[in-house]
Design goal:
The protein is an alpha+beta fold. It has one domain: Double Stranded RNA Binding Domain (2-Layer Sandwich). 35% of the residues lie in helices and 30% in strands. The protein is built from two helices and four strands, in the order βαβββα. It has a four-stranded mixed beta sheet, covered by helices on one side. Strand 3 and strand 4 form a beta hairpin. The longest helix is centred in the C-terminal third of the chain and has 25 residues. The termini are far apart. The mean pLDDT is 85. It holds the Pfam family Ribosomal_S30AE. This is Ribosome hibernation promoting factor. Keywords: Translation regulation. Belongs to the HPF/YfiA ribosome-associated protein family. Short HPF subfamily.
Length: 110
């Protein structure tokens, strides 16, 4: 499985990269159909008018490619690690739903 991690307006540190790889490996250890994953981390530099600071400006997006389907999740938070955690939770729910659908709709061979 190939995991591509890109940063937009920020540099990817080894700690962030290790965190992402660890979470994705844990998430997909029971699912061997994953072809590739693409993760994009970005930081929005907009300033909120009321608080004079950026709110929810660390954005994590991911695309997971399976045979015949692509899953997408996006999350934002004040901290990059929190946004990565939220994104992986969303993807985990999607993967579990996809896995349950596959188990439900398998043809019966008699």
């Amino acid at each position: 499985m190939q995991i591509i991690i890109r940063g937009h307006h920020l540099t990817i540190t080894p700690a962030i990269e290790e965190d992402i790889r660890c979470k994705f490996n844990d998430m997909t250890k029971h699912l061997d159909q994953v072809n590739s994953m693409q993760v994009k981390l970005s930081k929005d530099h907009q300033v909120d008018k009321h608080s004079k600071g950026g709110s929810l400006n660390h954005i994590a997006e991911a695309i997971v490619r399976l045979p015949g389907i692509e899953l997408f999740a996006q999350a934002s938070a004040d901290d990059m690690y929190t946004s990565i955690k939220k994104m992986t939770e969303k993807l985990k729910r999607q993967l579990e739903k996809h896995r349950k659908m596959q188990l439900t709709y398998q043809p019966l061979i008699v």
